[in-house]
Amino acid sequence: MGNCCVTAGEGGGSGRKKQPKEPKQKKGKKPNPFSIEYNRSAPPGATKLVVLREPTGRDIAARYELGGELGRGEFGVTYLCTDRATGEALACKSISKKKLRTAVDIEDVRREVEIMRHLPKHPNIVTLRDTYEDDNAVHLVMELCEGGELFDRIVARGHYTERAAAVVTKTIVEVVQMCHKHGVMHRDLKPENFLFANKKETAALKAIDFGLSVFFTPGERFTEIVGSPYYMAPEVLKRNYGQEVDVWSAGVILYILLCGVPPFWAETEQGVAQAIIRSAIDFKRDPWPRVSDNAKDLVRGMLNPDPKRRLTAQQVLDHPWLQNIKKAPNVNLGETVKARLQQFSVMNKFKKHALRVIAEHLSVEEVAGIKDMFEKMDLNKDSMINFDELKLGLNKLGHQMPDADVQILMDAVSNHYYFLSLWEPLAALCYYIGL
């Protein structure tokens, strides 16, 4: 959950014997290959729920002052947090106990805290400062990362090169190596889970989210399907995987860094899953003809579908492309790559916003009817929704969205590389609540 909120998954490999029940599927409905399965039963004694084993204390207000909202997710809200004694600006993730509906949810929060405490201090991992637990919420006080997301920083720069991609990749894989060395599998590596510490050009890039991470021992296998669709390794979909999945995810990030689009893409989640299983890497589209052979060789090694033959984190760091970063081409990868990265970033922000709005403001009945409402927005029945139709439809739903936000939504929908469908956020939520 870290500095940003994500959907927490199961705690595979944690020693629990009982597995969450399979959610019921509608007749004829294919299972979502990327689903996180939950046990829907409410935890006993929820009013007296104790989540953390050794919190710093109960009264967070005695030490910290909570300010404006920085982010929001399924489980909680991240606030600006100020140390009353020193004035230091921090981030506080407050997780409502009402949102922790299952024993799995509770274990996820507990394990995330334990993992962040377990990992040694590292310049590229956000630091957990304090933990508090009262009757209503769990509060995680951590280092504030206010330098923005990875792709946003790249887009803001005037010159983006293969060498810059190598520097970012090296940082990400160093985080993976450190986690594996200390018996932690991340399981959710993606660009959104890396933020810059501050707005300086020399700011450190930091991993900010360990909500799906687990402890592991050498040779231990996991079966839970967790993570984000584009970044899942084929063995995750086959429900038999180990720490090698983190190198795969880092390889997907590297591919995106070099060309701006995911290596495995389709118009549906089922299609994405099939593309991942096939693992056919395209090095023909622009700008791959201009990318060095060393870079492409590393991508192949990280995206080897056979986890036994895939490079380890150490082998990635030992690869010539990363060992000789200063010799990596410093030629601009082109405005097309930057534009794709910008679209990718906008799309991710939209999906998070869409899920948040739906989860916060709509009942189950409203969710079931929202698809029909959006179809009714298509006034001229051309299977396309223009700006005016979208704005009018949102107004009918009771959402008075500023023109700038409507335009962001329009831009996102028109982005064929990254938007699986207009209903992806809705489909994810409907699957989660069992519709």
From TrEMBL:
Binding positions (ATP): K93
Coiled-coil blocks: none
Gene Ontology terms for molecular function: ATP binding; calcium ion binding; protein serine/threonine kinase activity
Catalysed conversion reaction: L-threonyl-[protein] + ATP = O-phospho-L-threonyl-[protein] + ADP + H(+); L-seryl-[protein] + ATP = O-phospho-L-seryl-[protein] + ADP + H(+)
Protein encoded by which gene: LOC100829466
Residue ranges occupied by any EF-hand domain in the UniProt entry: 365-400
Protein name as catalogued: non-specific serine/threonine protein kinase
The UniProt record lists the keyword Metal-binding: yes
Family indicated by similarity: Belongs to the protein kinase superfamily. Ser/Thr protein kinase family. CDPK subfamily.
Native species: Brachypodium distachyon (Purple false brome)
Region feature Disordered, mapped onto this chain: 1-42
